[in-house]
């Protein structure tokens, strides 16, 4: 356990702590070699590297004291800050440093050596005082004491260590101190100075518990290794350090004359695990922040993120150019509020007022003005047939008119040009159908100025890189490629599977026909062989009949054949085959 006083830090060994009450002297302890410190404000400790991170009231740096063997130590300034750091938390897996200072109502983070920094949380914070992290689960919790006079109320909230998944856990505390995440990142403990209580809650916001109550003069609190510690003021400006097991109600204490500003508990078992930034900095070129799903990469001011991991230097624009809000591109002043999205983030078309003129004579089209009719006359928009062609990414500087099968719109009669705000479509944003009520106003006219449809009307983004842009009679037309449709080729048509089904059926039929042909072929061959064999047998039978004497009569009885057989009568010459035509 660390007892943090104004000018020194004392290590108390919990294994040597006796469970006795009324101990006057400090238990077995050692003092860290801090020098030139006027008033410690915030500390955190890395068990892995045996390094103490701290901030001083009169110093604009976060420093680290690396404790080496034989009691040697080295002090180093690693992170310049503005104002006074009042809370400090170390991600011991990635060496990122989180802090809160008295100048900004925000939680900031910096890489291990302080070269890159990023604001993690700032929206909705009034008076943040404490930040704690649990790197293995990528969890971060803070205390916000709220605005003046307790409005809004103090809150305890948690988020991922990259600022995502932010949620409020508890809103009924008065002055919470000693915020600590324990039990493998599932429970959050704290003490309330005003109520004199010790409380806990799960990090999902459930299971609130009141552990202790009625602690008078409570100032500091911490918990770890199944023990909780808190301090109260004693006589003669001394401080009592109380300790108790979580599962018991017995309390013990020892006394110290140190002017404590904080107490912490650390152990090797507690600082273990891994997260999305613990190895090779998560592949991020500057700042890697863990979250429950893995990690997210961030860039410091003056850089922009590309391909999710690489930070490149933002562009610097000189006159007459100016930079987009994301510092990714330089544009001229004439490109601001010109109806075209020239910046990747669309910042050049924010908060713009567009003047829209109604042309003299028009026909229903996707990019022209709605034709005005007499008062309360209704007009039905017919569906528009769309052809497809090679895509070319372009963005229209007016809001495209959405196609409907049958839509009735009430239009007011108007004969003069009107002015309205029509924001340009965002990159990749689908056009939406305006509500009928919005068009029941004579000052609202959908369209663009005829003079605006000049050479600048078709740019590289008008048809979303999915068609060719042309200007015909002061009207923009997109010829979309196959598979895309819409006024600006913004719709992707579902691919038909009829062709593949027909091809599969044809392939199966061809295979069946081929198998049938092979079967018929072999069957015919077999029939021919049988016919040939039958013909040969018939020829041989005719030959034997023709060469048999007329008077001879053969009996098929085997006995008769054997009795009639005389070896001496065997022919002495071979039988000659006749070649006469009678055969």
TrEMBL record:
The gene it comes from is LOC117662038
What parts of the sequence cross the membrane?
501-522
Instruction: Give the organism, scientific name.
Output: Pantherophis guttatus (Corn snake)
Full protein stretch here: 1633 to 2215 of 2215
Please report the name of this protein according to its UniProt entry: Low-density lipoprotein receptor-related protein 2-like
Region: Disordered, residue numbers:
415-439, 564-583
Which intervals carry biased composition (Polar residues)?
570-583
Q: Which domain of life is it from?
A: Eukaryota
Location of the protein in the cell: Membrane
Look up the coiled coil feature and give its residue ranges. none
């Amino acid at each position: 356990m660390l007892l943090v006083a104004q000018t020194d830090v004392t290590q108390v060994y919990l294994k040597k702590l006796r469970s006795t009450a009324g101990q006057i002297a400090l238990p077995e302890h050692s003092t860290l070699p801090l020098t030139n410190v006027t008033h410690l404000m915030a500390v955190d400790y890395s068990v892995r590297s045996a390094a103490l991170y701290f901030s001083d009231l009169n110093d604009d740096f976060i420093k680290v004291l690396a404790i080496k063997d034989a009691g040697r130590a080295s002090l180093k300034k690693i992170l310049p800050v503005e104002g006074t750091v009042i809370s400090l938390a170390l991600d011991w897996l990635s060496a990122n440093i989180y802090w809160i200072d008295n100048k900004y109502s925000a939680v900031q983070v910096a890489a291990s050596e302080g070269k890159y920094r990023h604001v993690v949380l700032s929206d909705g914070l009034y008076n943040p005082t404490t930040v704690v992290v649990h790197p293995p689960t990528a969890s971060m919790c803070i205390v916000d004491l709220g605005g003046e006079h307790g409005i809004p109320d103090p809150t305890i909230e948690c988020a991922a260590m990259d600022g995502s998944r932010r949620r409020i856990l508890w809103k009924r505390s008065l002055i919470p101190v000693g915020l600590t995440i324990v039990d493998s990142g599932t429970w959050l403990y704290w003490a309330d100075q005003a109520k004199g209580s010790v409380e806990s809650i799960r990090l999902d916001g459930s299971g609130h518990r009141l552990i202790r109550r009625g602690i008078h003069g409570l100032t500091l609190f911490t918990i770890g290794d199944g023990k909780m510690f808190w301090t109260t003021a004693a006589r003669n400006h001394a401080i009592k350090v109380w300790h108790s097991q979580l599962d018991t109600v017995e309390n013990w204490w020892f006394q110290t004359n140190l002017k404590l500003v904080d107490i912490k508990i650390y152990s090797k078992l507690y600082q273990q695990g891994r997260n999305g930034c613990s190895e090779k900095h998560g592949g991020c070129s500057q700042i890697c922040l863990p979250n429950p799903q893995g990690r997210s990469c961030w860039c410091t001011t003056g850089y922009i993120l590309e391909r999710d991991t690489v930070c490149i230097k933002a562009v610097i624009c000189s006159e007459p150019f100016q930079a987009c809000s994301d510092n990714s591109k330089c544009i001229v002043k004439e490109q601001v509020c010109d109806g075209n999205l020239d910046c990747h983030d669309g910042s050049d078309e924010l908060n713009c007022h567009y003047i829209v003129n109604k042309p003299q004579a028009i026909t229903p089209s996707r990019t022209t003005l709605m034709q005005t009719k007499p008062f309360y006359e209704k007009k039905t928009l017919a569906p528009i047939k769309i052809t497809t062609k090679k895509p070319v990414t372009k963005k229209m500087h007016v809001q495209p008119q959405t196609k409907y099968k049958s839509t009735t719109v009430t239009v007011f009669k108007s004969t003069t040009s009107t002015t309205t705000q029509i924001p340009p479509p965002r990159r990749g944003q689908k056009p939406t159908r305006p509500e009928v009520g919005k068009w029941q106003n004579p000052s609202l006219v959908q369209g663009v100025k005829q003079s605006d449809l000049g050479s600048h009307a078709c740019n590289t983004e008008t048809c979303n890189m999915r068609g060719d842009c042309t200007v015909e009679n002061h009207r923009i037309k997109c010829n979309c490629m196959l598979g895309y449709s819409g006024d600006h080729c913004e719709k992707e048509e579902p691919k038909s599977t009829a062709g593949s089904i027909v091809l599969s059926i044809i392939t199966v039929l061809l295979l069946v026909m081929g198998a049938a042909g092979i079967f018929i072929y072999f069957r015919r061959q077999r029939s021919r062989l049988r016919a040939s064999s039958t013909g040969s047998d018939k020829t041989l039978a005719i030959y034997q009949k023709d060469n048999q004497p007329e008077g001879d009569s053969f009996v098929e009885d085997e006995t008769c054949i054997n009795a009639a057989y005389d070896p001496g009568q065997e022919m002495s010459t071979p039988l000659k085959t006749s070649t006469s035509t009678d055969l």
